[in-house]
Structure prediction request, 250 residues.
Amino acid sequence: MTDGRALALAYLEQQRLLGGDAVILPASEPTPGARPGKTETPPSGLPPSGVSFDPPSGDLFAADPVQQAHTLAAVAALVAECTKCKLCENRNHTVPGEGPGNARLVVVGEGPGRTEDETGRPFVGKAGELLTKILGAIDFPREQVFICNVVKCRPPENRLPQYDEIAACVPYLFRQIELLKPAVILAMGGTAAQTLLNTKQALGALRNQVHRFRGIPLVVTYHPAALLRNPNWKRPTWDDVRIARRILDS
Ligand code: SF4
Prediction:
């Protein structure tokens, strides 16, 4: 493990041991970790500011292959060979994510399911069809969105990814976001939200706020698979994705 990655993991672990709620700010205060020169006050009509998480970037001078990956394809190539956690043992395909390199919207889910593992593509099957409809509802064709997950290999029986698996895999996601520099991140489901915001707060408490990941606005909503189980969450999901749309339009 490189010095840069060890430092990043130590920082993440420290944040979790300290309670994991990172920094919660009132709407009127500037957000730590924000990009210099950018105002953090949400445009009028948007929900208040929430959690801000600004994990350190990897050490560009260390021999960390993830940090040395300068394209999304290079990240995907590293993922394809990865054996850093036990999820590699039963995978059929890695699922690094897909979408254009200039995507303004990045959707992050939890991890690949059965169909994703069979195809190597994220958000396919019924949940994927629903995601395509959700994106269409805010006039965002799926082809214009980068879609990925926190972990890139399928957890057995679709269980939640474990902490050590997330810690091993998250540098790929962070690097993808670093390369994409999207205008908005849509975190779908508790695992994506809690990982990207370094918090233990429940999804319900994280909704209806504009959070920040490395200064990038981040909106939290339900995972499409959860919507298939509970159609009552479709309405709040619609409210959430409209927040993302308004940020993109502002
Ligand atoms: S889940 Fe991530 S860290 Fe684990 S083997 Fe797959 S690509 Fe590597």
